[in-house]
Amino acid sequence: MTGPSAPARETPTRLADYGFHYPITTRWADMDIYGHVNNVVFYSFFDTAVNAFLMQSGVLDPARSPVIGLVVETRCAYFRSVEIPAPVTAGVRVARLGSSSVRYEIAIFQGTDPTACAQGHFIHVYVDREHRRPVPLPGALRAALERLMSVPGID
Amino acid sequence: MTGPSAPARETPTRLADYGFHYPITTRWADMDIYGHVNNVVFYSFFDTAVNAFLMQSGVLDPARSPVIGLVVETRCAYFRSVEIPAPVTAGVRVARLGSSSVRYEIAIFQGTDPTACAQGHFIHVYVDREHRRPVPLPGALRAALERLMSVPGID
Amino acid sequence: MTGPSAPARETPTRLADYGFHYPITTRWADMDIYGHVNNVVFYSFFDTAVNAFLMQSGVLDPARSPVIGLVVETRCAYFRSVEIPAPVTAGVRVARLGSSSVRYEIAIFQGTDPTACAQGHFIHVYVDREHRRPVPLPGALRAALERLMSVPGID
Amino acid sequence: MTGPSAPARETPTRLADYGFHYPITTRWADMDIYGHVNNVVFYSFFDTAVNAFLMQSGVLDPARSPVIGLVVETRCAYFRSVEIPAPVTAGVRVARLGSSSVRYEIAIFQGTDPTACAQGHFIHVYVDREHRRPVPLPGALRAALERLMSVPGID
């Protein structure tokens, strides 16, 4: 689906370009009438991988954290289709860290192909849970995110 | 969630900027733990509105059309949260029409606010269903898409 | 799909058998590879219709109500397929009201057919939000539910 | 959520009661506003596990099989909540095999608890893909299903 008449697009990245790898199993309902995983589902993979990183790092408790990340922008470019029932692996890295925002880059891999089936970004702005106003990133969160900024192959 | 430390972003568009308006009811499952419609769901709104336009225009039969649109890129910027159970309206317009691809722009509106809660784009490349190779847009499809290119307020 | 070798099943109900009617638009992602709305999605229709009734009746604020309904059992029988992009209508009634639980019956209708495409039930047990222990149904909730117990055609 | 005022319900089963075990990772979007996996999602687990068994057994190719299973009834009883981001395991067994139908029983397990968080059934009627009329179960499918009928602890 990326023939000569498709818009020029970026090069697929590799799993080694990402510091956090998260396996996600595919589901029957991910498949649309065209027999592959629907475009919307990739954003669910992104959301799942980013929040899993935060929960595993101990810096997000979804039911209780006083500071939460709201999504202000997402994007995904699709290179190859993903099939069920094989699992995928999501790679996550931090591309930019602001005072109250973070830009994640995420890519989806399947099978033995070392290049991404799809890749994109996901920008969180951190807000206080009650009033939903931007707040500085808490220290522990910032430290966890900084660890995802330098990864083998990209620095 | 768009305070001073958020990345600079484009201006929210208005429903009148879009030639096709499609009402979508919200669902309980659209809501995430933060009490608003989850970011992933907006892409389901995009997908639904674009394909509804194509089906209502008689240029897509998902089970049988020999030429189908595969998604190669999507993006969404989020300005305000969307709440359940009120419905939303999706606005759709065609921003660019290539030989085998089309760039849709879509925005999501809720309630009496005339500006978008979220907006983005969705690029389809048309392929033959069997071999998934790009093909020229069929004439009837191109004609339907051209009608979405000139809309009040943007030409 | 209900030929001679299918298990004997109940008779499809009619929309007039239900006291609350709720329109739900269908989505592209509802469709599975077989070209109709996937079986799982009907439960999202059930969940949406029941909670919409509660929110419209002013007895549920999902983010704040101190007493919430947890689902302890659901069931659905499928009679005919549902197609996109046409909307459906969900019918809801209350079949049984206990001290802390309620059994809803829900059916899904599409197009001009007066009989259900699918129907089933949904049992909520009400608990206090914090400790998740069963509590008596609050008075306003019970009153709203009682109004859904007597409907034309079933009493 | 199963206190004294809840309806009497069956006993939770154990993973050893099921012949096919299928791991499924949970997703951010599975969680609803109450902070646990939403009731609807369990049916997606059921659908995923049953179809994964069929695909892994080589008796279902979703895009091409001339005989496909349509769902005519599903049910689920919920005993304990499921949390993200930990994965679940689905157990699947065949409880009844008719000439053109099969009743699967499925249960969902999480963590070290040997008893099910939720369990239910899923009835498929097999039809020819084109006319959607019931047909006898193909031989290879029947053989695969028979292997799931005798499992440790239930025969």
Q: What CATH architecture of chain A would you give?
A: Roll
Order of helices and strands of chain A: EHEEEEH
User: Largest interface: which pair?
Assistant: A-B, 41 and 41 residues
Shape of chain A: globular
Per DSSP E runs of 2 or more residues, the count of β-strands of chain A stands at: 5
Q: Please give the oligomerization state of what you see.
A: homotetramer
Give the CATH superfamily of chain A.
Answer: Hotdog Thioesterase
Q: Major sheet of chain A: size, sense and barrel closure?
A: 5 strands, antiparallel
Please indicate the percent range of residues of chain A in DSSP E strands (runs of 2 or more): 25-35%
CATH class of chain A: Alpha Beta
Write the layout of secondary structure elements.
Four copies of one chain form a homotetramer.
Chain A: E1 20-24, H1 39-56, E2 67-78, E3 88-97, E4 101-110, E5 118-128, H2 139-147
Antiparallel strand pairs in A: 1-3, 2-5, 3-4, 4-5
Can you walk through the features of this model?
- The structure is a homotetramer of 155-residue chains.
- Chain A has 155 residues and is of the alpha+beta class.
- Chain A has one domain (15-147): Thiol Ester Dehydrase, Chain A (Roll).
- Helix content of chain A is 17%, strand content 31%.
- Strand 2 (67-78) of chain C pairs antiparallel with strand 2 of chain D.
What's this model, at a glance?
Four copies of one chain form a homotetramer. Chain A is α+β, with helices and mostly antiparallel strands and 155 residues long.
Tags for this entry?
homotetramer; 155 residues; alpha+beta; Thiol Ester Dehydrase, Chain A; five-stranded antiparallel beta sheet; 17% helix; 31% strand
